[in-house]
Design goal:
It is a single chain. This protein is α+β, with helices and mostly antiparallel strands and about 270 residues long. Helices cover about 40% and strands about 25% of the residues. The chain has helices spanning about 75-85, 110-135, 145-175, 230-265, and strands spanning about 10, 15-20, 25-30, 30-35, 40-45, 50-55, 65-70, 100-105, 180-185, 190-195, 200-205, 215-220, 225-230. Strands 1-2-3-4-8 form a 5-stranded antiparallel sheet. Helix 2 packs antiparallel against helix 3 (about 145-175), helix 2 runs parallel beside helix 4 (about 230-265) and helix 3 (about 145-175) runs antiparallel to helix 4.
């Protein structure tokens, strides 16, 4: 069973795609790649601007279906026809989900957080520069001795506190809006646990623990977005540390603003 190498890949929005990779299909989604061996594929259906990949299934079972959307209709139809022509007329009656494997490409939410932290650092730096210029042009440059160290010290802890609080927020969100399941230890692979998503795909999560099972929570719309659930004590410890960082950061920022106000009012020798 083979597919001509000339079969053009399908390209979707945000860098997504579906292409032939040897004896398999490679479905690239925004957050991960799914490797689908051809032996696990029952057939492909072109459904307008989408391609439905129906997997093989055991007798009497409902086949699982993967969808790739946002493509050209003519290209979707041509791709489905080319793949179906290379598949056997009678697919094996096995659960194709068991043959799937995934590769996580990144965490979109963590990427957005990192961008926001960079933006926070940039805006904070611009604010410190603005305060420094203000006291200089008004004839109080000595105030820089308080504004610069206090401002950057506060900015540092604001960034650290915000970033440090993200894991706790992520766990809170997935506990509240996600699905909580048990992950089982993978024999012979310390720190590796596996859970099953709604489609039946096995997904790995890492945690160094002595137990045979752990609890995890994942996003219903993005099952690869997962957190290991921690004890209440560990969560409160993280909250306390992140909160302390934010408090120190706000105090530093307030110190820089206070030094500017004192300088402009001509109080304290500035």
């Amino acid at each position: 069973m083979s597919i001509l190498s000339s079969t053009p890949p399908l390209r979707g929005p945000e860098g997504t795609g579906l292409r032939v990779e040897g004896e398999a299909l490679l479905l690239r989604q925004p957050q991960e790649e799914v490797h689908i061996p051809l032996r696990a594929v029952g057939r492909l259906r072109a459904e307008g601007r989408a391609v439905a990949i129906e997997l093989t299934a055991a007798p009497g079972a409902v086949p699982a279906v993967l969808r790739f959307e946002g493509v050209d209709e003519a290209a979707a139809a041509a791709f489905a026809d080319a793949v179906n022509a290379a598949l056997p007329e009678e697919p094996e009656a096995v659960d194709g989900v068991q043959d799937l494997s995934g590769n996580r490409l990144g965490d979109r939410h963590a990427t957005l957080l990192f961008r926001r932290l960079k933006r926070m650092a940039l805006y904070g730096t611009l604010a410190i520069v603005a305060l420094s210029v203000l006291v200089c042009v008004t004839g109080h440059p000595v105030a820089l001795l308080a504004i610069i160290p206090s401002g950057f010290f506060g900015l540092l802890f604001l960034v650290l506190g915000t970033g440090g609080g993200y894991p706790t927020y992520e766990e809170w969100y997935l506990r509240r809006h996600g699905v909580t399941v048990t992950a089982d230890r993978v024999p012979g692979q310390p720190g590796q646990y596996v859970y099953v998503d709604p489609m039946g795909l096995q997904r790995n999560v890492r945690k160094f623990a002595s137990t045979w099972t752990i609890e995890v929570a994942y996003d219903r719309r993005d099952p690869g977005r997962v957190v290991v659930l921690r004890s209440r004590g560990m969560r409160w410890l993280d909250i306390a540390m992140a909160g302390s960082g934010l408090l120190i950061g706000f105090l530093g920022a307030a110190g820089a603003v206070a030094a500017t106000v004192v300088a402009l009012l001509g109080v304290g020798g500035f």
